[in-house]
# Entry
Amino acid sequence: MLVGVAFAIIWMKDLLSISMLSGIYGLLSASFFVAMDAVDVAFTEASVGAGVSTLLMLVAITMTGRSEHPVRHKPLLALAVVFVTGSLLVYGTWDMPYFGSAEAPIHQHVAPRYINDSMQEIGVPNIVTSVLASYRAFDTFGEVVVIFTAGIGVLALLSVVRRQEDIEKIDSFNNSMHEQHLVLRIVAKMLIPFIMLFAFYVQFHGDFGPGGGFQAGVIFAAAIFLYTMLFGMSTAYRVINQSFMQILAASGVLLYGSVGVISLLNGKEFFDYSVLSSNPVTGQHWGIFLVELGVGLTVASVMVIIFFNFAGRSENSPPPVSKDS
Amino acid sequence: MLIHLPVLQVIIPLLAAPLCLFLTKPRLVWLFALIVSGLAFLISGLLLQQVMTSGTIIYDLGGWDAPWGIEYRIDRLNAFLLLIISSISTIVLIAADTSIRKEIPADHHVLFYILYLLSLAGMLGIVATGDAFNVFVFLEISSLSAYALIALGKDRRALWASYQYLIMGTIGATFILIGIGLMYQMTGTLNMEDLSKRLPEVSQTRTVFTAFAFLIVGICLKLAMFPLHLWLPNAYAYAPSIVTAFFAATATKVAIYLLIRFTITVFGLSFSFTHFPLQLLFVVLGLVGIFVASTVAIYQTNVKHLFAYSSIAQIGYMIVGFSMTTMAGMTATLLHLFNHALMKSALFLALGAVMYRIGTTKLTHFQGLGRQMPLTLAAIVIGGLSLIGVPLTVGFVSKWYLVMAAIENGWWPVAALILLGSLLAVVYVWRIVEMAYFKPALAGTETIKEAPLSFLIPIWTLILANIYFGIDTRLSVQVAQAASMSLFGVTP
# Structure
């Protein structure tokens, strides 16, 4: 099915159905991850791949247009490169240990300590959380910064100084459109609080089950997207202030980083959470809690920033970029 | 605090970046970024000194031991790289305030400095870490911010150039990730030191072979090695001048570092060069790269393009030195890494000054500029001489070591070709000199003045460094030699 959908994406010419299909693709790969016992990854894929990125694509399509420009040249070189890459990958799988085999090196070397000792050392039942938020906290910090960078990058490239008349224009456009969606609006009004509540559950429950800041942030952002799509940009602007979102995104990163700085100030290594409390395991708990909160903050606010900057682009498209270089 | 230097090196710019959003005033943010970069420079200096006297520094992040947690491992090689990156970043930033006021709309200035600091932190992070996956994470930070920075260029074509770079860079990063993933699958570890111990056991498997191939191709895309260089010229030419000066001196160097780190430290010389025909491949591609890129450079009409192609040619020299797999060759490569960073940052900054005064870097607009902007053009000439490899400049030192290393290997034809390649550099540098000094000034350009001091100070600092390290080679050669010794496991 995954392969079938992928081919369908390539063959389709209608961008709307392509983005729908890519949503399906995301959902399918999420179920694939569940089948491989990677619940946390599946959760992220479901919320990002199937949820938010489809939404963003839809917004992009409403701005540009539905159909693809026909391409005339035949990208034979690209085909050759893809073919070589693919066959190399298949070649590489020949000597891989069998899936699920207990003798595979990944189960022999680092993993046993994560599985056996993380409960004593960190005291969090979800091993994935303890690996990503404590053993490899610095990688996760890097990922948060990556997301922050993406948000800043989008701001730098897309943010246009909005004039008042533009807002009014969008406003009237929105109002005419949104009056038609009365049922949707009422259902959404009922749903949104629950989505947000669910986001908070995912945020704070990451220690015990699958979940954590990344997923929670995305779900929270999705609630805001839904609101914006149904009630119009200007209503959303009244609730959400752009510069406030930027500050929020920055403070998420800073919150995460400051946990590390506290460890430094106490003379321990960066991100050594044991200093946060007299009992090292409680310290780990606090550390993970704060860090996940930082992740959630940054992810949610960056998603909102990206969404608003895409959606807020005025309808008149920029002049085409010259491609003669 | 001294034991925390390795991590402070990276997190100071990393945490400073979001802090910029709170400062809001562009001038203030510039000053802040300058101070932060200066601090990073100071730390890298201290680190290098510490490493040279007392050996490799290991720092466990989060207090977890190495294969379980992430470690920073600073040895002579990456301490040297850290110094190059942070010093160039600091010097280039001095001119940033003046330059971007002409090139970037005012409401983007704060974002510019945030992205600049992020990409600085990303590069420092790639170099400092001893963990393969951590490399990928910081690679993402530095490349994402790089795409955005390049797209900020005044020319609309900057967007297209950045898009090309984004596609190529993402393919490169994905290849690197696939390589790291396959390595993890075969060894169960992500730590470089640990990988180097566990890889030999499985080195005969096809999976490791595939991992190696993906890693090398991915890194070569990032370092714009011929023939994977197509993204580079436009990206450098249309980016804001400051960005070009910073990236030309550092970004590809980081990729070269990764190449050295993975082939020699992680996979080991015997695997990389006997199991794989890497040596022949790299010598040939390096040499072809030198000649093709230098020849193309001669025909460019935009000076920024010209120097961008010359950068690709210079990468060729580094690749040739690297492929010799001898200590002398490695020393030459590392020296050239340092020296080329000095030349190219000076040259591109000088072009930034030209851009500031006349708004373009087209070769035809250089007519008679030698009299109107004497100090800037003199800097370009000295930088160009250094690029050619004239004695008393750093270019001569690195060419000298490279040729000596080739002769030591018995590679006479290679040595001859390296010298021949320098002649091509004479041609393209001469074209600028001819335009600037031997042609009358264009009509209506009498009012062009010398570049402001905020440009001249960093440019001439770099040019003087070009001359200083060309005469007094003790520091650079000593460090480069020590670094290559530690790579090949020889104790000095």
